[in-house]
């Protein structure tokens, strides 16, 4: 509802009565109440007739426009990550290959490409798995070159796989509850 209409109704005036008092046509009053911003002579005359300041006819319209802009921003943010179920499936698809770090990012990439779900969370999931695919073999090789024994190499493999499983499951939980990731990188590899 426009400010002019609110003020006119508060003063118990019809459009015709306001037109008579102000000397402004009913059609102009209708246009202003429909959303046209009053300017110049019309603004001054309506403000004087209603006994209000010119700002009172304009300020709330700006507030309404700001509210609309905020709603549009929220809508755009929600569109960026629209399908959280698919996002969670993409995250969990790494689970079968969590024991083989070199391949753990392939299922999420394939699902992303086939479904065209390329929201920021999906990109971050895949970036994290690619990062793990690079880091885990490096850690494994360091332990192997240190020649700490067969047991330490086996334990390292198991620990790295369990860490990856934990990261995947914890992120799935966060996607489900908070629509975000718990573990993520500060950069994006995609």
TrEMBL record:
Residue intervals of the HTH cro/C1-type domain: 4-57
InterPro entries membership: Cro/C1-type_HTH, Lambda_DNA-bd_dom_sf
Presence of keyword Cytoplasm: no
CDD domains: HTH_XRE (cd00093)
TM region positions: 97-114, 126-146, 152-169
One Gene Ontology molecular-function label: DNA binding
Keywords associated with the record: DNA-binding, Membrane, Transmembrane, Transmembrane helix
Keyword Transport on entry: no
Residues spanning the signal sequence: none
Name by which UniProt lists this protein: DNA-binding protein
Species of origin: Chryseobacterium formosense
